[in-house]
Amino acid sequence: MDAIDIIVTKRDGGELSAAQIDWVIDVYARGGPNGSAVADEQMAALSMAILWRGMTRAEVSRWTEAMLRSGERLDFSDLPAPTTDKHSTGGVGDKITLPLTPAVAACGAAVPQLSGRGLGHTGGTLDKLESIPGWRAELTPAEMRRCLTEAGGVVCAAGAGLAPADRRLYALRDVTGTVESLPLIASSIMSKKLAEGTGSLVLDVKVGSGAFMKDAASARELARTMVDIGTDNGVRTVALLTAMDTPLGHEVGNALEVAESVRVLRGGGPDDVVELTVALAREMLAAAGLNGAKDPADALKDGSAMDVWRRMIRAQGGDPDAPLPVARERMEIPAPATGRLTRLDAYAAGVAARRLGAGRARKEDPVAPGAGVSLHAKPGDEVHAGRPLFTLHADDPARLERAVEVLADAYEIDGPQERLPLVIDRVTA
Amino acid sequence: MDAIDIIVTKRDGGELSAAQIDWVIDVYARGGPNGSAVADEQMAALSMAILWRGMTRAEVSRWTEAMLRSGERLDFSDLPAPTTDKHSTGGVGDKITLPLTPAVAACGAAVPQLSGRGLGHTGGTLDKLESIPGWRAELTPAEMRRCLTEAGGVVCAAGAGLAPADRRLYALRDVTGTVESLPLIASSIMSKKLAEGTGSLVLDVKVGSGAFMKDAASARELARTMVDIGTDNGVRTVALLTAMDTPLGHEVGNALEVAESVRVLRGGGPDDVVELTVALAREMLAAAGLNGAKDPADALKDGSAMDVWRRMIRAQGGDPDAPLPVARERMEIPAPATGRLTRLDAYAAGVAARRLGAGRARKEDPVAPGAGVSLHAKPGDEVHAGRPLFTLHADDPARLERAVEVLADAYEIDGPQERLPLVIDRVTA
After folding, report:
1. Which residues span the domain enclosing A386?
2. Taking the model in full, what pTM does it have?
């Protein structure tokens, strides 16, 4: 085996063999930057060749399997409840994991969920949960199992032992302009999700300005690739394509989204958040084989999802009754006219929230738990001149102006109505 | 400036600006593997993106200029004679530099020629000259100038100070499957040639089985790119496309080719070597502006080229009268039939010579000065059953059998006649 042969095969449009894929991932993952037989510059050239030439289904499934095998794979198959999980490709105001995990657990499945932190205009589930006093994201596999057993669900950070090849490759792609390869994106996501040991998986592939995929065709291709990878690796996998042209719910920001999620768990909350939570929960229960289970819409109404939520937060050191952090500064932006709000751009809202301190420009940056944007109207709602359209929350008053700027062009009143349906499509094996 | 932006621009099919090119080459050349702001993995990804997307004329000319500027550029413009040089893209039996340099110098031009060593099936000019006892390839710029002044021509190795960016980039491309990019090949060759300080340049772009470019269309594209680069960088540049379907001359191997070159310098030698030497010499003299100069065909006949040759060899420590090394073992291969030789494959002859010890599989390998293949017939010649077709020369008898093998399919008697003309095309600014 030789790294150059493998690069040249892909560069010239050929298909990599299973043996070539296993070798290149194994040697790359095990080697250090100098001792390795597959150097960073070789993996960079290969990644660019993959971005150029693509991968067949057999290649991308094997590539994912090889990354998965580079580390440990958790196993919860001995638990009494079947396991299921959801992964979202990321959006603005996407707090769905927070009500979803307890709702699904309340209906009888176990939900082992490894989540990430936010970067750029999208928020991260761990950042949101970390605004709850005492809650911690870093768990050992044994702690993860205990939370899962005691509470029925766990949301935590992926340990360094899971898919280490992906960790190294992602850092390399990040600095070599090779992030945007669909098969590499799909295998990166799926290697981590498969490593967490879930028996079934529902993917929430976002489409629109606030999503990584701007149009339904590319989102469908990503969904298809991930569903194929999951299926080929023995995990029942389904994907929903869902709208990310406008933020989900009325709150964008860490503690703001936790508070909104708690409203959903109390049986209230915004319609879109409830609708998407229930749709994804039903898919997860079906994927886990729990077809006669309780309906998750009922679990949100009858308090059973809330009970799981409180157990989950406590199991990870959090106090579900503690007051959430509030930003020091606040500013209201009034609607300039009366009429119907026809557009409220997800990307701009995400950028505004980041500028307010809710997100990060770079991985090392801290986030402000209380910062964010409250949206007093959503597309389709009536707005009134002079009444609040947005409330901005920040610790530093200088940040408010920088968010105002980006929100000025983010919405339209009485413009053309072009909204995506909340659930656009469904992709199955 | 940011390496990722530059990679992404090229990846997405855009044109790099002069400022981007200057920055990426400068920072890459100056930085060490760790301290650099352009890491090896970033240059590898960029090289693959260039291989994929290509480069415009403006890009490749600027890229070459930036590599040239990464080191020193020799300057011989103060010499009384105009300078001119030739570069060949490499072939089998290609000893043309040996008679050509003194022939051109004998007609009034100064020829500063930086040459390389052989790799794979092609020979290297320095390897050939090093078979002359005492001759040395490594000269300082001051020694180079002295040889040029005293003898009129100099053939030596490129010093480490010339185009160091190319040196680092070529080593990277070699291990990342990115050698085969036409603009990167062209700029690598041209950055070194422009650094040697020649005022004009003639390119011998080989076409055929023994050449890097197998067909005339790709050779023409390479020639066009190199002529454009030279022109854009202020050096009058012309290219000839010449045949490399069969070896040049009757000898393939280091000392064997020196001996054949000396026969040409004595006014004899094979027709094809003489014809190509004269054609390239006339182009070089015209490019140097010496249009009323002596004809190089006369310089070969009247002994004036031989005089320059003897001065050149002596100026670099060699003894032009010393006997050349002879291989310890010899084997004759007879023609199996009587008829007309219609094919004698350049690539196979090159591989045979390498197996006999005349060339290298890897850069570190030594070469055997006396090893090689003598060809007793060339395509078009009559051969006679039982009379010698090839003589093999090697120090190690085991090598003989490995060369016999590859030569068995290398020729044809009374087959279809499909020969390329020696000079196929001419490409000018």
Report:
1. 329-413
2. 0.87
